[in-house]
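So, can you check these tokens?
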Amino acid sequence: MRAAGALLLVATSFSATPLDAQTASPYVPLHHWATPYVEYLISSGVIADPTPLTRPLKQADVVLALEAADTTHLGSAFKATVRRLLAELRPRVRGARYRVELGAGLAAASYTVRDPLELGRGVPPRQAVRRGFASGTGQVQLAFGPFVGVSHPTVDTRLQYDPDWTASADNATRWEEGYVSGQWRHGEAFFGILDRNWGPSGIQGVLLSDDPYSMDHLYLSIGTERVQIAAIATQLDSRTDTSGAIVNRYMVLHRFWLRPRGRWTVALWEGSVLSGVGRQLEPWYLNVATLGVLRQSSTGANVNSFVGLDLERHARTTLFGQFMLDDIQVSRKVASDRKPTSYAFTVGAKGRLRRRAAAWTLFYTQVANLTYRNEDDLQVPLFHGLGTGRNFADYDQATAKLGIVTRSGALLEPELTLLRQGEGDPRLPHPLVPDYPTTATILQGVVERTIRLALGGSWQRAQWGVVANGGVHFVHNAGHVTGAAATHWVGSIGVTFRMRAEGTVR
């Protein structure tokens, strides 16, 4: 990452004047209790989406959107939600400032993974485990001039039982955020830990999402509120090849984001996964003015490339989609040309139920069997076994959700999901050329089908919060065994207490 560090130094010369002469803003994390409420207001059309197809949002952008909301003709539930979010996110002091937060929580669940739809899936399959958990968290934010810094360590005993968490020492502690960001009128330079998602909000991006735990990365962006060019560079975990040599692995993403005046937002992007014994991150892959998918052919380097397109049309009914192509064989001349196409996509819509304080979301997503896998088994977008986008492949999923805020301020989210999971997985070896004729494009082998009926809920006050989720999974061909059936009751509940202090930095 020496080249990435050098680029970070160059990026600090974007401008000497902070945006509107204001202090830089921290991000509202994707796991923050306020995020589902903000998404609810955006889907309902109550507030504008500051940066469609891009998450997380900056705290200052959310505050501006909330302050601009016309609540005159809205019901009491909407108004109370806007007030509660402003009280949480609007800084109490201006200029250079600090903010310290402390929190503690207790939880119980019938599963230890983050998403109950992971149960029974993956290699090895995720198992249900009933446990109680305790957590403690502390966060420090410093903002002065064009710079903001955040450090947010957390101790959470759930991590000790999560198969996706691979830390072997002190395995209940992680940094949820830890970053320094320089923000100017026409650019940002960021380095650290922060969950990001590129694609439709509320749905995991197909190549960049909040799935990997604590992934340090360099993020650079240049542009305006209408046009932006961005790049992300990160070092994935090193692995050993068949000879026992250590293989260094990196991932670089480029994106061109366009939001013209009107209803549309469009993003064109690409990703490159590099690997090699003793390999360093070549600087030409960091060049946002070029395409990595073309540079690999001109430099002769071995790279696994991805290209994608994101779309959103904002209206009373907002339409959205994300499309990624991993590999496609145009020719059919030799045996290796029979490799199945690998791709992923999501399409959907969201909006507000008329005359009711309710938002709805519908989406369908599909990930092919060999998506993310590569002939070089080390050139895959996995970070300590977790996908940088989706954690699974060889499946499709249809989901319908509602969001309803009650008069008491509780956010209720009923959900109906149909999931079909084949036997493919990103962690499996890539098939050999003789196996291509018997390799399915999608839904390999015996297909496991899950119907999920669930209800999620969140109730938040200044210091206290309660989050719960419960439902039932009806599984057909359970464990990819033909005719096997299972019914799983899944649920979780957690209570948190938090307090904070703010002040000026002199």
